[in-house]
Amino acid sequence: LAVSGGADSMALAKLCVEARQHLREKSSYDQLELSAFIVDHQCYAGADMRRSGLKNTVLTLAWPHGINPSELSNFETVARKMRYQALGKACRDLHIEGLITAHHSDDQAETVLMRLCQGRIGESLHGIQAETNIDCWGHYGLVGSGGRDIAEFKKNERQRLRDTGSKEYAMVLKAASVETQDPSILRQDGFEYGGIKVYRPFLSFSKEQLKETCRHYGVDWVEDATNHDPTKTPRNAIRYLLRTNALPAALRPRSVCALAERVRSKLREQETRAEKYFERCKIDSFHAESGRLVVQIPPQGIGLGKKPSDPIAMDDAESEHHAARFLLAL
Predict the structure, then answer these.
(1) What pairs with residue 58 in β-bridges?
(2) Are 232 and 226 in contact (CB under 8 A)?
(3) In whole angstroms, what is the distance from residue 154 CA to residue 269 CA?
(4) Is-contact 158 296, C-beta < 8 A?
(5) Looking at residue 298, what DSSP letter applies?
(6) How many CA atoms lie within 13 A of 146 on its CB side?
(7) CA pair distance 114, 251, nearest whole angstrom
(8) Which neighbouring-strand residues pair with 2?
């Protein structure tokens, strides 16, 4: 668990402890291990987890010599990058595969409004996602790398593919068995997997609801005074406007979060169509040594959402767009 000491993360910590206790009492399940990571930004007071019932570790961000983080104009951006790197490395070192954060619907609204202010449109308005890879691209063991038990991985992946119908690894499994029809080609010195997933279970709850949760359980939290200064950062300014209801109804949290959900729904629809397109591609050969994959892309104009016998369901421009998305994905 990523814990800052604020009401949202303290509510997360308390509810996770309660869930663990419930599992022990009702089902004798005692395998749920929880650890709290507290990131020390060296800027303000953090969480007091001494009575939380969680194992906790303080991660201190190492700022360059001579840098006062509180004076940085882009402090939020830099701190976020350093924070996720510290959390990701701590998870990797302790063999933790899932990191839970306490982002809530207020955070979602602020994020989408920030992107609107930046002139971003379309897919970028999907907001914060409930489940993602940790934002640490390029760091070994944090995203898509670091897995070692290939045999166990294959067993688990085959089960996951059967259970969920996911196509995430279908290409790799299919490519690996082009000649031998034997997935054991995924040997130790072949493909890697692994990394850390970030889960955000509170995106449908407001910050006020999480504060009320803390009050209910008698949990104290820390208020970061810098979050309430509307002149300090653009996000603070947006937070102030939302808190004071200074924005029209169309830009208030409920409407903005609904917008983000519509965008995510559209993206899911596009991914489904792209998967269907991918399923019609033929893998000719795959060379693990060079990483070269030879694929035959089906003719453009195939209706991705309809039966093969249906008339052309996409115009040339849309078909070309999906082909380009597929190639970029490869």
Answers:
(1) 38
(2) yes
(3) 28
(4) no
(5) P
(6) 20
(7) 11
(8) 37
- In 72-116, DSSP assigns E strands to 98-100
Predicted confidence (pLDDT) at residue 330 exceeds the cutoff of 90: no
3-state helix, strand, coil in the chain (%, to 5): 45, 10, 40
Mean pLDDT value across residues 115-125: 89
Distance CA 206, CA 220 (A): 18
Residues making up the chain, counted from first to last? 330
- The one-letter amino acid at 24: R
Give SS3 for 300: coil
- Which pTM does this prediction carry? 0.73
- Residue 159 burial class via C-beta count within 10 angstroms: exposed 0-12, middle 13-18, buried 19 and up: exposed
Confidence check: pLDDT of 108 > 50: yes
Please name the residue that has the structure tokens 């082009």.
Answer: 178
Half-sphere exposure of 205 (CA within 13 A, CB side): 17
Please give the DSSP secondary-structure letter assigned to residue 267.
H
Which one is predicted more confidently, 166 or 60? 60
Instruction: Give the whole-angstrom CA distance, residue 52 versus residue 177.
Output: 50
Angle subtended at Cα 217 by Cα 216 and Cα 219, rounded to the nearest 5 degrees: 110
Q: How far apart are CA 58 and CA 52, in angstroms?
A: 14
Where would I find the beta strands (DSSP E) of the chain?
Answer: 2-3, 35-40, 55-60, 98-100, 131-133, 197-199, 282-287, 292-296
Tokens found for residue 251? 């830009």
| Partners of 287 in the β-ladder | 292
CA dist 229 and 237 (Å) reads: 8
| Between 135 and 56, the higher pLDDT residue | 135
Cβ pair 56, 33 in contact under 8 A: no
Task: Give whole-number Cα distances, 189 to 42, 51, 139, in Å.
Answer: 42, 45, 19
DSSP reduced 3-state for 187: coil
Find the radius of gyration of the CA atoms of the chain. Answer: 23
| 275-321 pLDDT tens trace | 887 778 888 888 878 888 888 877 754 444 444 444 334 455 565 66
Q: What three-state secondary structure class fits 271?
A: helix
* Alpha-carbon gap, residue 141 to 78, rounded angstroms: 21
